[in-house]
Structure formats: C-alpha cells, structure tokens
Amino acid sequence: MAAELERTEQVRAKIQIKNPLLRNALSEFFGTFLLLFIGIGIVMQFILSNEKLNTWININLGWGLAIAFTVYTCSKTSGGHFNPAVSIAFLTLGKLPFKDFLVYCVVQTIGAALGSAAAFGLYYDQFVKFAGAYRTILGPKATAGCFCSYPALHVSNTTAFFDQFAGTALLVLFVCVVIDKRNGIPGAAHPLLFGLVVMMIGTAYGMNLGYPINPARDLGPRLFSFFIYGSGVFSYHSYYFWIPVIAPLFGAIFGAWSYTFFVGAHIPDQRETTYVLVDEANQPLKLATDA
C-alpha cells in the first residue's frame, strides 16, 4: 500500500498543473462531465424504463447526490461550479475574474455535452429497445427529453423564462448562504448542502421544465442531441432553447445579490473577546481569544 501511495505521489509530482486557470478549467470540465454522465443517466433510466425503475423523487435524490459528490471531487481546485449561472454570480460578486468566467462557460458546456454522449453510449441498447430506430421529440416513444428540457405545449415561453429565473435564483441564493463565512457552516458540509438545495428546488419547481437551472446542463446535451434528433431540438416550442441558457444567468445574479442586500450585508461581525489565563498565584500564563 505504501509503495502504491508513493507511486501516486510520483505521478502527481510529474503531471500536476501549476497554472491556476488551466487547473481549474480542467476541474470544471471533468466535474461537469461527471455530473452530466450521472444526471443524464438518471433521466434516461426514468424515461427508457417507462418510469418503472425511477420515480420523480428518485430523479431529485439522484441529481442531489450527483451534485454533492462531484462538487466534493473538485472542491479543492475550482470549487465545483459546473454551471455558468453560478460562475456569473461569482463574477459579479468579485469572486471570479472575467477571463476565468469565459473559460469556465466553455469547458462546462463541452463537459456537459460529452457527459451526455457517454451516457447515451451506455444506454444505447435501451434506446433501441424503447423506441426502435425512431428518435423523436414528441409522442409516446419520444426520447429527446433524456438529454435536455422540452416544456409541454401548454407551458408558455414566458412561464418557462420565469421558471428558470426563479429556480436559479433560489439555487444561487442558498449557495451564497452556505459559503458565507459569517454563517459559520463548515466547508466540508458545503457540497452536501448544495446537493440538498438542488433536491429542494426539484421537489418544488420541477413541474414546468424539469429544473435545468444550468445553461451548460441544458445546452451541452442539446448540442449533442442535435446530431440525433436534428434541428428540432432548437426550433421546438418557438425556439424555446435559449430560455434555459439565458434566464438562469439573470436569475443567478438576482439570487446572489438579493441574499447580500436582504441578509448577508447585515450579519454582525463576531466580536473577539480576549481572556488572560492565570495560574494559582494569579500570575498571567497566556492570552486566549473567543470569537
């Protein structure tokens, strides 16, 4: 075991990336790939089994766990955004440089596309069993919903926009709550809490669109599915596709700053109290602080 660990450290010393942006970009790509590989697999298992192997609560639970474990994976590198909406919120809060934001958006979308492609490859036989040679967006054997969101025809694009705005605002608001150091939430608990936030949003506001609340999560798989289903993936429902790409960006900024204005800016700083420890002769030993 010791020798194996030693080899690991040897490899680490040789391949470790020193450039912070490159290191974080690789992390965001890999983390988003993993997130979509798992998450899309959950949706595929739901649809391709005629909703017998998964239920709606399974989808919420599965995505929550996928978020938690993938963020844990990358928590010590990029922090695990995996979502351009989260990244743009961090940009406006001054936590992420503009150049990094642009790079994150690109690698997140590529990672999402490749993650969905890998899930499709793993479930290809199930696609054939479920729908034969047909790949459709609508109908009883429609499978396009395995990849990205397609609202029912009665859901207007206006509703869809505000659905994505509100869902992403909730997501980023609670991300800001969790990471705010004044709230004193231990860093090791952050990824798990992010996963629980996603579960909460899914159980409350998943009915309209399935809560993509992530431009890369929706656009990446949609780009891949274009090669399977054709241009309909973009023209569906009066070109709905732009809504889960744009609306979350505005929602994320609103969520982040609403927390700041309503709560975050008003949390009092903890006062540091200094104590003098003394011995039995009442002689000072050392100073201790209690924040």
How many independent structural domains?
A: 1
Uncertain regions spanning at least 5 consecutive residues: none
CATH class identity: Mainly Alpha
Radius of gyration: 23 Å
- What is the fold-level CATH name, i.e. the topology? Glycerol uptake facilitator protein
Report the structural category.
Answer: mainly alpha
The CATH superfamily is Glycerol uptake facilitator protein
Largest sheet, in brief, is: 2 strands, antiparallel
- Strand residue percentage: under 5%
Q: What level of helicity do the residues show?
A: 55-70%
Strands of the largest sheet, in order across it? Answer: 1-2
Main location: membrane
Family: Belongs to the MIP/aquaporin (TC 1.A.8) family.
GO biological process, one term: glycerol transmembrane transport
Transmembrane segments: 21-47, 53-72, 101-124, 160-179, 191-213, 239-262
Please give a handful of descriptors for the protein shown.
Glycerol uptake facilitator protein; two-stranded antiparallel ribbon; 2 strands; 11 helices; mainly alpha; 291 residues
Can you describe what's shown?
Pfam families: MIP. It is a multi-pass membrane protein. It is found in: Membrane. Its main location: membrane. The chain has 291 residues and is mainly alpha-helical. It has one domain: Glycerol uptake facilitator protein (Up-down Bundle), CATH 1.20.1080. It contains 11 helices and 2 strands. It has a two-stranded antiparallel sheet. Helix 2 runs parallel beside helix 5, helix 4 packs antiparallel against helix 5 and helix 5 packs across helix 9. The longest helix has 29 residues. The mean pLDDT is 93.
